[in-house]
Predict the structure.
Amino acid sequence: MIKALLLIFEPVATWEGIHRASRSMVSILAVYLLPLLLLVAVCEGYGLVHWGKWQGEILRLKKFSVSEAAVIETAQFLLSLIVIFTGASIIKSIGETFRGRHTYAQAFTAVAYGLSPLFLFRLLDASSGINPWVTWSIGILLSIAALYHGVPRMMEPDPAHAIGLFFMSALVLILVTGLARFVTDAYLRGKFSKLDVIISDVAARLPF
């Protein structure tokens, strides 16, 4: 969480420290990314149980059970990981079109840390009174600002290709995270009734 804040306020020095640390993907997952996503899931889950979400054309506030919140947040947790791994894979492929020889680990590091401001702002989604597209918009803008310094530092493209790789990386992450936000927001607003039945059925089988 502290690293996410530093990427917002001191991106250059923070990326330099990340580059020097040269951590493996497993280390980044275990020490940084998974704890951050778990914190977000717990806060969002707390909000679902205690404050709920507005649903329906005639708005009504729905509060979720603990088991329903657990299923929803587990799905969001896995979706966040899919976004990161998919985004890193696409950005690595884009880097190759710029004649770069980037590793998947480089792309993963850039995406995992670069999207942390977005995940940080998802903490505000716990509230029922905040539009989730507002938190996404602020979070993705701060993430793109962080990636402006992170993509060139972590992926080390040729200087002539650095700005192009950044813009393409930013576009990919906007699209991928935007799609994920569309799906989760639509579900929480009650747009996927069949999925709601499935989640309720799974939640009913949990021992809490």
